[in-house]
Amino acid sequence: MAASRRPSAVPPMLRHLKARPGGPDDAEEEWIVTALARWCYRHRLVVLVLWVGALFGLGAAGTSAGTDYSNVFSLPDTDSKRAYDLMTKAFPESAGDTDTVVWRVDEGASARDEGVRSRIEPALKEIAGMKGVGEVQGPYASKQAGAAQISGNGRIAYAQVTFAEEANSVPKDLVQDVVDTAQRAERSGLQVELGGQAITRIQEPPTGVAEMVGIAAAAVVLFLAFGSLFAMVLPIVIAVFGVGLGMLSTMLLSHVTDIPEVAPLLGSLIGLGVGIDYALFIVTRHRRGILRGMEPEESAVHALNTSGRAVLFAGGTVCIALAGMLVMNMRFLDGVVIAASLTVVLSVLAAVTLLPSLLGLLGSRVLSRRQRRRLAAEGPEPAEASGLAARWSSYVQKRPRSIAALAFVVMAFLALPLLSLRLGATDQGNHQESTTTRQAYDMLADGFGPGFNGPLQVVAEKADTGGLVTAIRETEGVARVAAAPPADGISVINVVPTTSPQSEETDQLIDRLRGDVIPEAGVDAHVGGVTAVFKDFAAVTGDRLPYFVGAIIGLGFLLLLIAFRSLVVPLMAALMNLIAAAASFGVLVAVFQWGWGTEILGVGKEGPITAFLPVIMLSLLFGLSMDYQVFLVSRMHEEWVHTKDNARAVRVGLAETSRVINCAALIMICVFSAFVLSGDMEGAMAGIGLAAAVALDAFILRTALVPAAMHLLGRSNWWLPAGLEKRLPHLAVEPREAPEETAPVPHARVREPDGEGGASVVHGFIRTAEGEPVEGAVLTLLSKGGRQLDRVTSLADGSYIVAAPSAGAYLLAVTAPGYAARARHIAVAGEPLVYDVELAVGEMDAVN
Description:
Elements lengths: L1 E5 L16 H20 L1 H22 L13 H12 L7 E8 L8 H15 L4 E5 L5 H4 L9 E8 L8 H12 L6 E6 L1 H5 L7 H18 L2 H25 L9 H29 L4 H28 L7 H32 L6 H10 L9 H11 L1 H16 L7 E2 L11 H13 L7 E6 L4 H8 L4 E6 L6 E8 L6 H18 L3 E4 L1 H35 L3 H26 L4 H4 L7 E2 L2 H31 L2 H28 L7 H33 L8 H6 L32 E9 L9 E5 L5 E6 L5 E6 L3 E9 L2 E10 L4 E7 L9
Parallel strand pairs: 6-11, 12-18
Antiparallel strand pairs: 1-18, 2-4, 2-5, 3-4, 7-9, 7-10, 8-9, 12-15, 13-14, 13-16, 16-17
Helix pairs in contact: 1-2, 1-11, 1-12, 2-9, 2-12, 4-6, 8-9, 8-10, 8-23, 9-10, 9-12, 10-11, 10-12, 10-23, 11-12, 11-22, 14-23, 15-20, 15-24, 17-18, 19-20, 19-22, 20-22, 20-24, 22-23, 22-24, 23-24
Keywords: Cell membrane, Membrane, Transmembrane, Transmembrane helix
Organism: Streptomyces rectiviolaceus
Family: Belongs to the resistance-nodulation-cell division (RND) (TC 2.A.6) family. MmpL subfamily.
């Protein structure tokens, strides 16, 4: 009989025979988690009432207080910010939102015709008399002033409607009345459209449409995964509570700090994804515990003490990744951090408190009827992984090089469009062609030039700007220049470029004005306007993005280094995060910047990628990737500690986690993709980008590239210098399969030690000479005097575990049908002993 000894390790099933590596602090943490889960399970009605009361209470407060979102895109120490400050000082009354009514007549007619004027003027007069409208400036009031509001060919004209409040504060009913009144003036040969921020608000789908579609899609996936209506509802309820409380809290916080309008949308996007996924992990563990013979309460407690602890860790990493946006030092992103982090925290809190109370209400009904009948008839199911996931895991082990190469080529191909990434801002020119704002935008561009929709303002303080106006007028790329009368010593020169706000030529014009024209004129002036603000925002984002990426990648490396005691695992995770980000941004560029399918998806016209989107997407992608990495590698790490067999560790880890990871990813893809329906270009970009990132991360990286690379690296995956091991703190992330330490173990029986202290175990694998596992082999542990101490049978993978009452010398006997019996003297110390046995057919053996 051949046998081998490997360094001892603690089998996960028998950690109760040995002190936990985390020491007293880890035991205390486990006791707290267990006690909280048990309390919530037993006091389920109290917990449920508290959560429902919080939701309705915040709902009432949020409804009465309303919202006060503020889009602060300007940045300190930028030229556009200095121009904005000077204009605010000179024109403080221009705080209200200004929108535009545009009309066009057919070829051969003119906007000056009496028939056109007789229809438009009464409509403009009626709009001017509405409560909440400050003033209306049309082209017919004064020939001299209004001439500029009629195009050169006379076919297109516009009027400016200034509301008394900013766009977000203008009542939607008032905006709708303005639109209806203006469009009633239409007739055959006269088209009327409206543009502006206030007009955009009434085109948005009803609030919650994207969320409801995402939830419906997630419900279908959950029902297919669980086969149980009750189990399907649980993750959705948790996500609804977490996102609902998060959005209501964000509404209230908007009154005390700057929260951008896109923040609650992004918060609900990430909140729905993580809320459903975290609940899915816990419910899956709970159902597995019941199927393996545990009582519902004990199963729920163990699910919270294992998957729940992983959820706490994963939620913490998402919040830390979101907080990484603070490195950018942008006020606009600070509000996004607050909204998204608050929603994630509340989703995690719902998963670890509200979910166990709901599990208590359902009891065993969390299983389907068929599962309950089978459990009653056949008893607990075995613990071995099987099915498609196990077969794919074995396939990856057999062909790691080809799978790794194919996965890398696919990711590299998808990342190629990233080379043409251009950051900027979306505007109404990117809206769908059917919208009135897009029609108004195109009409103004057709009648007054592409640059009319994004004019620049050159602002100077206490200076003679006559020479500057002349110099700007002669500058390449300038269509029109108009100087406004000075106010409080501040002069404003309106500059209309010849190109659209999103074109690279307009960016070059801004650089030309700042770098050449203004310095040569000898005037201290600054270039502002919405187009210049977004250009500066994109430039600052690009400059600071490497520091942000370095911060979140470094933080992820440190967390995984501490959690898994390995240098290679966190290095691989950092590399995979970068690959996933590159490929997902490649998809984003192809869809939104190149326009591959934008009209089919219903997201409007192609344009640059919104400047702040890379920061938000990288934060969310980093957090979600960390979730999947933790759930996947923690199971591999557990098996590695058990067997010191890297191939087995990677194979078992992938087989037992890939299904739940892929299911979770599919849910997130559904939720994120649904945000195409949000009516918001930034929300659609984030939804498509994150859906692509999650799909690539889960289905290619975590399912193929990561395990294939770990097979190729072998034992190097788990290498850590001894000196570093001693200095690193311990961070306990409970492995996904840890409940087996108390769950029933099929075929393997562990006897309580009957000796004085020093209890330990012997574990390993029974294999043939060809390396094939032997199932059903009987192993007997005997004392020196021949007394039987423990007796077990090997599992399907050939593994076994026997318990030794104390350190000392024993006899291990092995018998299996078709194989010669084996026996060996073994010496057991205080640590577990890893001992593999090789059986041969028809061979005689003697006790050694």
